[in-house]
């Protein structure tokens, strides 16, 4: 009896294998052969479902960002709790920040293949910050796009460079709690609350 094909399950396996591969090796270092082997899928299916390696990478980053946006919506009305949720998410899913870091290495300041979609993605988040500024919930001393960038940088950097975090701030649970409290204090000062 022949095995039943499940294209959705195959796509999901390919996607998960691609996330792991790209997070570990970036675009240039990733190998479609390894993705296919990890996904237990034919290499040609990867090209059929996702396009070339660069297109696959773009889709992986895009969907991971959508997953983050759904799991941790920006909440400028409660910046501290939002930062807690953001840091918890990245601690549980460090692959997204690794993907973004690799994307930065690969593309530098050049335009991204999906840049219009990325701009739309961030525009919604910046609009939420701007709205909170207009309502007087947070300070408007820093322009909304810059403020949002600074807040996510504060929250994300320890996950992006865990070795620096360990060396500079320590590695115990109390060290991590202290750093989180410091991140939230810095954020409070940035938003003027």
Describe this structure in words.
Helix content is 77%, strand content 0%. The chain contains 10 helices and no strands. It has helices spanning 7-29, 32-39, 43-50, 53-71, 79-92, 95-107, 115-134, 144-160, 162-169, 173-191. Helix 1 (7-29) packs antiparallel against helix 2 (32-39), helix 1 (7-29) packs across helix 4 and helix 7 (115-134) packs across helix 8 (144-160). The radius of gyration is 19 Å and the shape is globular. The mean pLDDT is 94.
- The topology string of helices and strands comes to HHHHHHHHHH
Helix content: over 70%
Note the main sheet: none
Class from helix and strand fractions: mainly alpha
Rg calculated over all Cα atoms: 19 Å
* Beta-strand percentage range: under 5%
The overall pLDDT, averaged over residues, is: 94
Helix and strand layout, with pairings?
Layout lengths: L6 H23 L2 H8 L3 H8 L2 H19 L7 H14 L2 H13 L7 H20 L9 H17 L1 H8 L3 H19 L2
Key terms:
mainly alpha, 10 helices, 193 residues
Describe the structure in brief.
The protein is mainly α and 193 residues long. It is 77% helix and 0% strand.
